[in-house]
Each structure stands twice: as structure tokens, then as C-alpha cells.
Amino acid sequence: MTRSADAPSATPSPSLLSPPPRAWALAGWALLPLRLFLGVTFLFAGMQKLANPNFFDPNSPASIQAQLIASSRLSPIHLLTEHLLQFATPLGVVISLGEIAIGIGVLLGLWTRIAALGGMVMSFALFLAVSFHASPYYTGADLVYFFAFVPLLIAGAGGAPSLDARIARRAATEKGVGDPTNYVIPFAAVQDSCGNFKAGRCSALEGSDCGPVRCPVLAGGRPSVIERRGIDEVDRRAVVIGSTAAAAAGVAGLVIAGASAGLGRAIDGAPKAKSSTSNLNGGGSSGGTTTTTSGGSGTPSGTAIGAASSVEVGGAATFTAPNGDPGVVLQPKPGEFVAYDALCPHAGCTVSYSKAADLLVCPCHASEFKISNGDVIAGPSPTGLTKWKCAKGPDGQLYLTV
Q1: CA distance linking residue 56 with residue 100, whole number of Å
Q2: How far, in Å, CA of 27 to CA of 31, rounded?
Q3: Which positions ≥6 away from 51 have C-beta within 8 Å?
Q4: Which of 4, 33, 105, 402 has a 20 to 30 Å separation from 96 between CA atoms?
């Protein structure tokens, strides 16, 4: 027995790889929490940098200069970061203003895809420059931020509360076009109201099975810009309104940036960078030597890095190791010296000695390390600091073996 041609057929189920029409525009409400988080985070990050004098102070271990120096040794784009070092302060200003612009765009939903693209570019650049070597890789935040922006690049504001959606509705209304906002309805409701649906088939598609993937109702309305191969009057009006809104947001961003920088310096929101350690390579009569010995006549083997008298008991001093890495040497007890590679294993920032906490602390992500052996005790660093052998010679110099 054969089935009648007029008998209704089962509605075909779309495959996992066949999303419904305009599926990219249906995610706005689901992405709203992510949009708010990224917008607030980037806006705050930009304001915090501008309000923090240490970010632009080359003497601070948390400065943009210090971070570029660290990344120049570890980054796969170290040749570029080395050249950028001379432009560290302008680069820091550009990064701060860029983060504010991205934050405002994502938070307000204004030119959301462009703001998301900017966030992706900045996050990936920071990943290559700073956190590329983070181990395990998922402990570096920059890569996570890069992928967090991807859904916003695909969906934009997606019809959720945003200036993009408001501008699109206003432009459509002014040109006599219906509301362009996408709404989700069950496909069964489309079939109930569609004049082309009959006996499980679509007369508009030459009797093909009725399904959401090729449905002319769902795919109807104004086609996308790509399908039109051009921009119509509605899109032109949306661009004009959006540009005006973007200009206003840009002025607001500059006001926020100026207020953040001025307020941070007025209330001294971050203490001035004051080194609690001396510098063995600082150029004194006993500092800066790089003599290498083999250990004869009671002299320890290794490279002389400076005078032991420069390291007070219970204090620390910094130096540049023979391999080019920044180092820190401490004297926890009289005559006892310990030295470490000062590059934090997490993201390559230079750690500094906190006398109040008696710990080595990373100024970028707050990892903390023991003085005695360099083990990590807090923070995101996956491992402790690399310990070097350091001893005082009969000539009063400290000798380091890397």
C-alpha cells in the first residue's frame, strides 16, 4: 500500500550543522551577561591604567616599560616589543584609551561587532606579548578574553537592549520599513499561519518538505547587506545615526579618560614607585662587575654581580643576570644570601620584594613566593621562581651561578 501524495509527511528535522535563518541574530539575550562583563571590565581596566601613575613610571615594576622588557625576552614577537620599548608611554596611553573605547562600545551595544573586533585584536596582541608562555595555557587570561569576544563579533548585540538595535529600529521607522528586530517563535506557529504550508509541504518551494532551514517566511523580509550586494537607504540612515552616537560616545570616553587620570593623580590613588631594594648593577664603584671566576683562592665560582654590602640584612637588591634576566638577591640572615630569577613564571612580570610581608610578589597578578626557596604560595603562577646559587667571596663581592 502506497502513501497518498496528499498525505502529510513528517516535518524534517534540521541537522546540527543547519541552523535556522538568521541564527546569528538570536543570541543577543543569552550574550547579554557576557557583554556586560566585558564592557565593564575593559572600561575599568582602561580607567585604572590612566589613574595609576606607576603604569607610566619606568622605575615601577608594574609599569608598561617593565612589562615590555619582560616580554622582550619571552614573547614570540620579542623583536617587535623591543622596538616598542622606546614608545612605551604613548603605547600605554593608546592601550588605555583603546580599552575604554572597547568597554563603552560593548557595554552600550554601539557598533558592537567593531568593538568586539577591537577587543579580540587587543587580547590577542597581549597574549602574544605577555601571556604566550603561561603554563598551563589556560592560566593566561588574554586568550580567554580573545575567545570571549568571538560570539559578540558573530552576533553583535543580537537584538538585546543596545544602541545598535535602537538605531536600527529608528532608521527603519524613518524609511517606512517594519521593525527589523528578530524574534524567536516555534516553527509550528509559522506553519499554522503560513499560506504556503499544505500537507507537510511548501508550495512556495515547489512542494518541498516544509522545514525551518529553507523557510521563505523565516528567511523573508529585508535581505542582508551581503545578499543585497549594496547598502540601501535604511542602512545609510543607520550609519549616520550610529556615527553621531559613536562621536558622542567618543567624547564621553575622552572625558572619562581625562577624569580618571586627573583624579588618580589628585588623590594619589597609587603610591609612587619607590624601590625597597638597591640595584647591584646600578653603577657604583663596586657594582656592575661581570668578572667570572673558577673558584680558585677561596673565591666562589660564578659571575660577580656586585658588593654584598649593598644587600642589607632582611633586605634585597636587584641585578641583571648573565643570561639577561632580571634577578633579585636577598639576605634573610647575616651572611646568608639567596638569589632568584625575578621573572614570574605566570606571565613574565618582574617580581619585587615586599619587606612588610617578607615575600617576593608579582605586581601584575599578585603571585607570592617564599623567600627561603622561591616556592609559590599564592596567585596564578603554576611554579615557583628559579633559584640560583649565590655566595659571598673574600673580596666582598657576590658571585652568582646560573
Answers
A1: 17
A2: 6
A3: 260, 261, 263, 264, 265, 269, 270
A4: 33
- Are 96 and 235 in contact, with CB atoms under 8 Å apart? no
- pLDDT mean over 158-177: 85
CA dihedral 192, 198, 199, 202 (to 10 degrees): -100
Residues 269 and 283 in one domain: no
Contact indicator for 143, 137 with CB cutoff of 8 Å: yes
Rounded to 5°, angle at Cα 234 from 232 and 237: 110
Handedness of CA 60, 61, 67, 69 (dihedral sign): positive
Q: Read off the pLDDT of residues 381-400 as tens digits, 9 standing for 90 and up.
A: 888 999 999 888 888 889 98
Closest C-alpha among 376, 377, 380 to residue 346? 380
**C-alpha distances in Å from residue 398, one per residue of 41, 234, 289, 300, 330:** 45, 74, 10, 9, 11
- Asked if 252 and 301 sit in the same domain, the reply is no
Residue 228 C-alpha cell reads as 543585497
In which element (H, E) is residue 368 found? strand 368-369
pLDDT digits (tens, 9 = 90+) for 225-273: 555 545 567 777 777 887 888 888 888 888 888 888 887 767 654 444 4
- Domain of residue 287, residue span: 278-401
- How far is residue 28's CA from residue 31's CA, in Å, rounded to a whole number? 5
In 140-269, DSSP assigns E strands to 197-198, 201-202, 208-209
pTM summary value: 0.67
Name residue, grid cell 608598561. 64
With b for 16 or more beta-carbon neighbours within 10 A and e for fewer, the 112-127 pattern comes to bbbbbbbbbebbbebb
Q: What is the pLDDT of residues 53-77, one digit of tens each?
A: 888 877 676 678 777 776 666 678 8
Same domain, 18 and 161: yes
